[in-house]
Amino acid sequence: MLSAQALDGLPEVAPGDDLGALIVASLRRIRLQSSHVVVIAHKVVSKAEGRIRDLAAIRPSTRATELAARLGKDPRLVEVILSESSEVLRAARGVLICVTHHGFVCANAGVDGSNVPGADRVLLLPEDPDRSARSLRQRLRELTGAAPAIVVTDSFGRAWRNGQCDVAIGCAGLQPLDDWRGRTDANGRVLKATVLAVADELAAAADLARAKDRSQPVVLISGAERFVSGEDGPGARALLRPERDDLFR
Amino acid sequence: MLSAQALDGLPEVAPGDDLGALIVASLRRIRLQSSHVVVIAHKVVSKAEGRIRDLAAIRPSTRATELAARLGKDPRLVEVILSESSEVLRAARGVLICVTHHGFVCANAGVDGSNVPGADRVLLLPEDPDRSARSLRQRLRELTGAAPAIVVTDSFGRAWRNGQCDVAIGCAGLQPLDDWRGRTDANGRVLKATVLAVADELAAAADLARAKDRSQPVVLISGAERFVSGEDGPGARALLRPERDDLFR
Known about the structure:
The structure is a homodimer of 249-residue chains.
Chain A: E1 2-6, H1 19-27, E2 37-41, H2 42-48, E3 52-54, H3 62-71, H4 75-83, E4 85-92, E5 95-100, E6 105-107, E7 121-123, H5 129-144, E8 149-158, E9 161-172, E10 178-179, E11 195-196, H6 198-209, E12 218-222
Parallel strand pairs in A: 2-8
Antiparallel strand pairs in A: 1-12, 2-12, 3-7, 4-5, 5-6, 8-9, 10-11
Helix pairs in contact in A: 1-5, 3-4
C-alpha cells in the first residue's frame, strides 16, 4: 500500500529560511521515518535558496528582446530564461523549450512567475537540485534522527501529451531508476528494456495528494521503502537522457 | 490522503474473459466505491480483448524487412509494429518511435513481447482503450452497483528523460486534465499555463503500488475522488497533443 499525505502549515518561505526545521514543525504528530519519501515542490527550495530575480533589475539583451517580440513575452523574462539555459530547442507559438544548465528539457528553463510574492519577481530552479535534496536530507537527519528520501519536483510539459506532470529534478536517498533489464517476467522471458523512472512516478503521485488549491508544497509518501536507500545515490541527474541518445533534440 | 493498493489473485487472462468479474473476485473484502479509481495495466485488457498476434503467422513486407535489418529487430515484429502505426517518427539506434492509430507517440507502437505466454506471441494496445475503460466501468457497475473511474495504462518512455513512466492510454469516469488556467495562485496571481495531467499522474502512482515483480495489473486508488466524475468524460484522447501544436514531431 502506497500512501501520500500533504503536510499543512508550511509558512511562506523566504531566502535563508531553514527548510528542514519548517518541515519538521509541519509534521506535527507524524513521526518521520527513514523509510519515508519527502516530496517537495522546488518553489519552496528555490525561495529558501534565494533563487529569485526581480525583473525590474534585468536589462534584456538584443537576442532576448527579439525572441520576446516574436513570442509575445516580456523581454526581461526572456533574458532570465536565456541566462538559465544552455540551449534553446524550440521558440515558436509563444513557447520557449530550453535545455537548462542542469540538462533538463522544459518550458522557459523552469523560470516561473506564479506563486512568488511581489509583482515582478520570478523564481528560478535551484542551482543544483540534487545538492538541495542531499542538504535537506542531512538537515532532517540532524533534526529528527531519520533520513527519509527526498524528491524535489517541478511540473514539466511533455512533447506529445497535453497537460503537465510533476517530475523529479533532484533527489537523495532514492534509487531514481528501477532497472529491470535482464530480469525475467512472470513467464520467465527476459525483459529487454524496462527501466522504471521511480523518482518521476513518486513526484506524480505526490502531486495528486496536494490540496485543491495546490498550496501544500510538501508531501510525505509511505510504502515506497523498496526504492529508498541509505546512501544518497546518483540523484535526479541519472534521469537525464544523454544528448547522444536523444532522438528529438 | 491518497492511497494506492494493488489487488492480488487476478488469474492469467485469456481472450473473451470477463475482466470485470475477475476484478470483482480479486477485490475480496474491499468494497468497491464510485469514488475509487481502478487503474489497470493494458496487458490484461489487451489479452481479454484478444489483441494478440502470433509472429509465426506474419509475413513481413519489404519495408518491414528493411527497417528490421537496419534496427536489428525481428522483421515479423516490425511488420506488426507498422500495422499498428499511422506514422514512424524515428527509426534509429534500435529504436522505433511511432504514432499509433490512436495518436499515441511511443516506442514500437505499444507492441510488446513480454508478459505474454507463448514464445512468438506479441501483445498490441487495445483497439480503443477509452472504449475498453467505459465498458469495464459499465461492467463493474452491473456487478457491484459502484461505478469507479477506470484508467488503462501503458509504460511510455520520454523524449529527454531516462526510464519509463506509466501513463493513461484510456480512461472513463475521470477528468483526465485538471485545468487551472484563469484560476489564481496563493498570491492572487492568475495562473497562465497550468493544466495537470491527472490521468497520467494516477497511472504513475498506481505503478509504484505494484508488487516488486510487477505481477499485479490492477491497482485501486482512493483519495482521488475530486477527479472522478459521474459521466464517462472525454477519455485519454484528451491527453493527445494535436499535431498542429506539436513542436517535436
